[in-house]
Amino acid sequence: MITLKNISKTFRLKNNSLKALDDVSLEIERGDIVGVIGFSGAGKSTLIRTVNLLEKPDTGQVILNGKDLTRLGSKELAQERKKIGMIFQHFNLLSSRTVFDNVALPLELDHVGKQEIARKVNELLKIVGLAEKALDYPKNLSGGQKQRVAIARALANDPYLLLCDEATSALDPATTQSILELLQDINTRLGITILLITHEMDVIKAICNHVAVIDKGKLIAKGTLKDIISDKVHPIIKQFTTTRKMRIPQSLSHILQQDPGEGLFPLIEVEMKGEMALDSLLSTISTKLGTPYKVLTADIEYVDTANFGKLLLHLQGTAEENATVLAYLNIINIQNTVKGYA
Ligand SMILES: Nc1ncnc2c1ncn2[C@@H]1O[C@H](COP(=O)(O)OP(=O)(O)O)[C@@H](O)[C@H]1O
Ligand SMILES: [Mg+2]
């Protein structure tokens, strides 16, 4: 439905030039929520701006619903752009206009009648949960409310595609969550395809079903969220997906200091990377290997049915039983991530 084909873009500066996008190809299916993640300066904004041709690529095609936007004249392009909404990190609202008038702006520009504008704007404000704020000015709104106004404005022309450029990066975690829920709701209820770019893996995990990773202007990986999180190849992806280091609970540090002898009471950190289900791992240790253990802490999350994250286990068997567990973890190939703390 949306195809970016071999897009390249170089910014020419006074003394040198900078390749912001290098042969980028990406396909987005209707109804998807696709996230592009990358560090600052990776080319994310440039990429998302090529989709509605705010940034004109040097080479490559932008094909939306079968039309190559790079070949359209300015009138036709303006027509196509109306069906693509966009929101930004800093909301870009007009401070001199009320909430109502901000949302109404695209409709006014489109010469829609007053009554129809009122109907549409009120409906949109309801969708974003701001019906009561219609007559307020942006300066009296919180960041989350401002982004809701921007979302309502982006929906005014009934787009089929919504582009989100770091839409939650200026918001606190709770507000981020509520905006992401709103985007998900818009995707399901209104069937609007969403392309978002972000530098935060949590945003991707919260709502995206497909992900691409961009680094120095190149897409270095594409796939489902599960594919990307379980990627073990790219160091860049690892940086985005590494979970935090487990802390050993205070109450256990005395056990560690006792040093009961080699192989006894080892604490081990097991990293779950999607291949094995947590419950089957635990039942193997207790039932098949017959080794008693305690789960001390776990930071596990699920993508579909696959689990990712870390688990701190306290093995409580004999030295031999504990050694069997360590050997088993080696065999199922998570040996690199097992550390003896004791
Ligand atoms: N209009 C521009 N002129 C010159 N360089 C630019 C311009 N826009 C972006 N760049 C450069 O292109 C690279 C990618 O920028 P951008 O797409 O904004 O990255 P991101 O959104 O991932 O932080 C950066 O090095 C940036 O400085
Ligand atoms: Mg950017």
Name the descriptors.
342 residues; binds magnesium ion; Alpha-Beta Plaits; alpha/beta; six-stranded mixed beta sheet; 2 domains; four-stranded antiparallel beta sheet; Rossmann fold
Q: What is the N-to-C succession of helices and strands?
A: EEEHEEHEHHHEHEHEEHHHEHEEH
Question: Any idea what the CATH superfamily of the largest domain is called?
Answer: P-loop containing nucleotide triphosphate hydrolases
Overall 3D shape = elongated
| Largest sheet, spatial ordering of strands | 6-7-8-3-9-10
CATH class division of the largest domain: Alpha Beta
| Poorly predicted tracts of residues | none
State mean pLDDT (0 to 100 scale). Answer: 89
Structural class: alpha/beta
Helix content: 25-40%
Strand count: 13
Whole-angstrom Rg: 25 Å
Query: Major sheet, described briefly?
Result: 6 strands, mixed
As a percent range, the share of strand residues is 25-35%
**Distinct small molecules bound, one entry per kind:** adenosine-5'-diphosphate, magnesium ion
CATH topology of the largest domain: Rossmann fold
Helix count, DSSP H or I runs of 4 or more residues: 12
